[in-house]
Amino acid sequence: MRGTDLHYQPRPGPDEPADIPHADRPCRLPHHRHLEGLGHLPELGRIRVPTPVFGGEFDECVPVHLADIAARIPDSEHITQSGAAHMGYLEREPLRSDYISTIADYLTRTESRRRAT
Description:
Blueprint: E1 17-19, E2 28-30, E3 51-56, H1 63-72, E4 76-81, H2 95-116
Parallel strand pairs: 3-4
Antiparallel strand pairs: 1-2
């Protein structure tokens, strides 16, 4: 990001941040076009806690990539929020509340499962 410039850029380059125009406030995030280049995929199988893999329908990390990440993590759940981008907690209502409810539901189910064992 260049300074505090938070103006919408319709076509950022691969290393430039992109705005999320439907969020309540200006929001920038870097583009991650190739998850494989990050080198973490082989290590995901080492995670040993219940793990939600959240994403949005319009996420830069598309649902098929998130499904691949979830498939590599034991006891994970892939959740795609309809109508949302990368950061559901920054979305306008009702998407923000839907995001929070989804997290709360996941935590409730995970805790219930833990108590049952």
